[in-house]
Amino acid sequence: MAILIDDVKLDLKGSPNVGTKEEKFVKEAIEKIREEFKGRFPLLITYGDHMGFKQVFTTENWSRTMTSTGFPKKTIPTKKNVEFFGTQISVRYADDLVNDGTGNLVPEPKRKIDFEGKLLIPESKID
Fold it and tell me: Cα dihedral sign for 123, 124, 125, 127?
């Protein structure tokens, strides 16, 4: 996994006090999440019941509402421009970096993450 800011991969290893301003910020955020959810990993992220919908089937003679609840599919972009300490930066997430054939490491082509109502996050993928 990789977090890139302005297409530069963050080094998230080591002490939260070491690295660029961006690396320190992300390391500190990850540590806060670790502390808050200590002993509760893997985290299970789900849509709440209030976000569900019921499906209705209608024919010429009858209408029926299903009792099971469905959830909308959410697509999460893996690249976003954000303001960071007064400066616009591009933040990108990638499962992996791959060689583009010229020796440069680039994020894998995946541009979106599909969230279909349930996501299990182990502690090793907390970023």
Answer: positive
Residue with the bigger pLDDT between 107 and 5: it is 5
- The model's pLDDT over 47-79, given as tens digits with 9 standing for 90+, comes to 776 677 766 666 677 766 555 566 777 777 888
Number of structural domains (the chain) is 1
Range of the domain at 69: 2-125
pTM of the complete model: 0.68
Q: CB-hemisphere CA count at 13 Å for 43? A: 13
